[in-house]
Amino acid sequence: MKKLVLALLAVVIVSSLAFIGCPAKEPEVYHLKYSDWGPEFWDIGVRAMEWIAAVEERTEGRVIITGYWSEALLKRLDTYRGVETGLADIALYVLGGNPGIHQINRVIDLPGTGIPGERAQMEIYQRLRDKYPELDEEYGNAFPLRMIGLPAEHIHTTAKFHLVRTPEDLAGIKTYANPLWTEQLDSVGAAVMDVSPMEWYTSLDTNLIQGMLIHWNAVYDAGLTELFQYHTVIGASGSGAQTIGWIMNRDSFDELPGDIQDIILESALEFNEPSLEDSVNTGIEGRAYAESIGHEVVDLTPAEIQMWLDLAKPIHEQWIAESEAAGFANARTIYNDMMAMVEEYK
Questions:
Q1: Count of CB atoms situated within 10 Å of the CB of 102
Q2: What's the pLDDT score for residue 23?
């Protein structure tokens, strides 16, 4: 009996030593790549860095996101394809910024819809996505983590051009603008140039372009104000507005454990409100700065604003026709629904 007890005791001691000698398994660490076509010190970049840090903290180091800035990983025009194919796991994406990718989703970006502000654009777009599944389906293997409205776009021109009030005043200009404007601006003698954000400054400085249809935030954040002389404000809704956010590769997302997926999704949405606040504040600062250095800033009259809205109307019908031809039979229904939502926010 004594020998049996001693034998059992020996087994227990050996087993304990073996257990002590095996360290606990370290949790798996997931490394992700985030791509941004702008620098990390722009408002959008600052918020992205905050989110990256928040994800690492909330996952207790199980997710490490490396940021690549100023097109270091993906060029702006390659953003969607780069995420879709896994060259980047997450990226900053302007809807429609990569031609030929999205069609039905461009409804929210149509110029001249009169959407009054970034929050309205964000909420209307989410409502459309919730109601019409084809919008999310069109994203394919790169889905949105969050999407918000960009500020209203106005007209900014250099001293080598002139102040613009009417569409006809754009004749002869080479300008940056939402690509959806291309044909209509061409009809008044303006040429749209799709210039990379990293080339905005040099393009203006060398007179490659003489203007931009863009929001105050981009002008101010990118340090472009001094290169302009005239600023034309087209009411609260501007000439239109685009939509921006973070997209993520579906395969990269699916490989993550469920609790990490929840953290990624929830934390991304938490940055909508800070981003909207940044947008409003930076826009106010941008205009104030232009005025403080002696630039001419004009607010168009209601009649002048209507000229720009009228110029945009053919774009709406063209988008509907192209969307229907692409297989989206209810494009007009989606458009009409959106325009009804816009009226709710006025």
A1: 19
A2: 58
**Low-confidence stretches of the chain (pLDDT beneath 70):** 1-24
Q: What is the pLDDT of residues 223-261, one digit of tens each?
A: 999 999 999 999 999 999 999 999 999 999 999 999 999
Q: Map tokens 């989703």 to a residue.
A: 105
- Rounded to a whole number of angstroms, the CA Rg of the chain reads 25
- Percent of the chain's residues with pLDDT above 70: 93
Verify that 108 and 127 share a domain, yes or no.
yes
Rounded CA-CA distance 226/219 in Å is 9
What is the predicted pLDDT for the residue at 328?
98
Domain span including residue 45: 30-150+242-282
Task: For residue 272, give Cα distances in angstroms to 130, 145, 164, 261, 305.
Answer: 17, 11, 33, 18, 29
- Cα dihedral sign, 224-226-229-231: positive
**Interacting residues of 342 by C-beta distance below 8 A, sequence separation 6+:** 113, 114, 115, 116, 120, 124
- Torsion angle of the four alpha carbons 216, 218, 222, 224, in this order, in degrees rounded to the nearest 10: -50
Q: Count of CB atoms within 10 A of residue 106's CB?
A: 21
Alpha helices by DSSP H, listed for 110-181, are 118-131, 133-137
Q: Cβ atoms within 10 A of the Cβ of 160, count? A: 13
Q: For residue 68, give the nearest of 43, 37, 98 by alpha carbon.
A: 37
Residue 13's pLDDT is 41
For the record, the structure tokens of 250 come out as 């579906």
Give the model's pLDDT for residue 97: 85
d(CA 159, CA 97): 28
Residue 95, pLDDT score: 95
Residues in the chain: 346
pTM of the model: 0.90
CA distance 102 to 56: 32
Bridge-based pairing state of the strands 90-94 and 243-249: antiparallel
Q: Residue 9 falls within a domain, yes or no?
A: no
Report the amino acid identity of residue 315.
I
Are residues 53 and 187 located together in one domain of the fold? no
| Paired strand residues for 230 | 157, 296
CATH number, domain with residue 189: 3.40.190.170
Is residue 232 included in any domain, yes or no?
yes
